[in-house]
């Protein structure tokens, strides 16, 4: 059985960089009692950082996972010598409360279209979010649904759209909520028997932005409430923007009538960033941080780190801290040394044997089948997918890939790459397989 903290950590793992998790969250010791999650920090510095950056989120996730309000306590101590009397925390209600009486949008105004780096993988999403922000409430783009793997900029675009709407239309009521906040608001309203308030609050906004709706899965009552809220907003042309970590129909335990409705408006996929976009993001973010990063170093990192943008940010933070600390310039060697652990983790996931294994499992074949000479239709397609993925995700040359796939010629690999690129445009099934496999291989 996984403890509440294990499950909470698994969620945080998807939201913060690996570096953050290792530095701040893994060192915490934990004591769980019914209704109480006690987190013990090794010192006051860690405690303050965790409080500032993670506590609110830990509180939300724990409430959500436990389906009740958990008393999260953060204190300095260790399991060997627990501190019996914690100093008073921020009052819990303050952490949990989500919509204060005087209307607040919950938008983070640091995220804008200006500091979003556009590339092939996200340009449709950016354009759609921008259009919706300029013309909210149009039927053909309601709801706007941004979907794709973790850390690819969906929340960033959602905030950017909300911020722009508010800038263009003073007094425009935009409300941003994570799906768990919607859920916990609903539970509180149910307990306090004031569902009417809940309904009217959500329905009185001009634009409702709900992040990560995959977490509605299996929560039937929440889905039903959301469905009604959705209909009410839709009918009066109030804008709805949603994000989801996959196409909603692929989320298990979601009501079909809800998922079909979510597809009515404008669903847009956000893909993992390609090499150029990764390099551009690194250069722009380094510039914002005042870190001197040469193109050569940015290209090295972009070539070797292929996962989500959040990990690129984590890498930059590490570089920036090291550079600051040592006073050294960020050369290739310096970056390789500072990022050694991160780069090793990435490379393991993206080795040819691992890609072959993931594709074989996905296609319900054995790796030996992929490497064999046999050519049934299903087998040949899986092999072509695996070769094209290897080309996309690693720096191996065509002949090297051919060798690793049972000694095939480099022209066979080239043919596979071209065919798969074409099928991704024309065939929904191939596109879906590709997206799922990319997600499985790069979500770290
Ligand atoms: N194209 C981009 N340009 C600039 N920053 C980006 C871009 N894409 C992502 N980021 C940054 O990466 C981090 C993660 O992005 P974000 O939180 O929007 O991801 P997400 O897709 O919503 O992921 P999740 O589903 O895990 O919430 C943020 O700090 C965001 O600013």
From TrEMBL:
Main location: cytoplasm
Positions annotated to bind ATP: 151, 153-155
Protein name as annotated: Chromosomal replication initiator protein DnaA
Cellular localization per UniProt: Cytoplasm
Gene Ontology MF annotations: ATP binding; DNA replication origin binding; lipid binding
Pfam families given in the database record: Bac_DnaA, Bac_DnaA_C, DnaA_N
The protein's role, per its UniProt record: Plays an essential role in the initiation and regulation of chromosomal replication. ATP-DnaA binds to the origin of replication (oriC) to initiate formation of the DNA replication initiation complex once per cell cycle. Binds the DnaA box (a 9 base pair repeat at the origin) and separates the double-stranded (ds)DNA. Forms a right-handed helical filament on oriC DNA; dsDNA binds to the exterior of the filament while single-stranded (ss)DNA is stabiized in the filament's interior.
PROSITE patterns reported for this sequence: DNAA
Cellular component, GO, one term: plasma membrane
Highest taxon of source: Bacteria
Location of region: Domain I, interacts with DnaA modulators: 1-84
Residue ranges constituting the AAA+ ATPase domain according to the UniProt record: 140-268
Gene3D superfamilies with a match to the protein in the record: 1.10.1750.10, 1.10.8.60, 3.30.300.180, P-loop containing nucleotide triphosphate hydrolases (3.40.50.300)
InterPro entries registered for this protein in UniProt: AAA+_ATPase (IPR003593), Chromosome_initiator_DnaA (IPR001957), Chromosome_initiator_DnaA-like (IPR020591), Chromosome_initiator_DnaA_CS (IPR018312), DnaA_C (IPR013159), DnaA_dom (IPR013317), DnaA_N_dom (IPR024633), DnaA_N_sf (IPR038454)
UniProt comment concerning the protein's domains: Domain I is involved in oligomerization and binding regulators, domain II is flexibile and of varying length in different bacteria, domain III forms the AAA+ region, while domain IV binds dsDNA.
Keywords for this protein: ATP-binding, Cytoplasm, DNA replication, DNA-binding, Lipid-binding, Nucleotide-binding
Protein family per UniProt: Belongs to the DnaA family.
SUBUNIT field: Oligomerizes as a right-handed, spiral filament on DNA at oriC.
Domain Chromosomal replication initiator DnaA C-terminal: 351-420
Annotated region described as Domain IV, binds dsDNA, given as residue ranges: 324-444
GO BP term, pick one: DNA replication initiation
